[in-house]
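Can anyone check this?
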Amino acid sequence: MNTKTSANSSEVSGFSLTIIGEQSPDRPELLGRDVRYVLNVKAIGQDGQVIEGVRYTVNCDLASKSLISFTGRGEEQLSTAAGENFSIYGRPPPNASYHLSMNKTLQVIVTSSDGVSTQVDYRMGRLCFWSTPDAQLSNDGHHWWVFSHTEWVGEGTGDQWHWSKNVEEAHLNIPSKGIGTSRFTSDAQGGSGYLSVRVDFPIDKGVFTAGERFRVLMPSSWNDWTATIPYEGEIQVRSE
């Protein structure tokens, strides 16, 4: 993108906002707690070029109990070609009294000195990934099980993750076998059921042979406040 310098903020048509950090490609507006993000903001002119020298502020209303830090909000900025970076971090709750404040919509509003503004809404919730799937023969020997469970993305600063509902469905693709299937998830740990989920896909016994290796894809799953990062990798069927 081209850039130009201008001290005349009336040339601004709006602002470009870009989140840098772990995200689900199918739910880019969802940010995960315990993950550090950078929000990059650039001023954009009427001709679509990045403009330097524009004064603006970034605002986002955050209650203290939401446990979200947002550096630089409310402070006047001067736009540059590279854009300005703002750090966003949502802590997991230290105890159950914070649970009702954990799912939070962030209304980020960027406003130039003469009132031109852009608003983008993000959701602060929970982001997880699928563990490396495993494949083994069922106890009755009639089919194979391909199974995985969710783990939380983040720095591991807390174990209070059961304030919201988990993903209810998971998807499995095995391109070399022409398999594409979905299954409902089940609680994996925790009395309340929301620490992790597990999914087990039954596959006909004749599809694999013991010791065979194959590529597996698990696309994103999501609900309003929780999303998974897709998994892609090679796994090996356990010996019978």
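Reply from J.R.: I decoded it. The chain has two domains: 3-126, 127-236.
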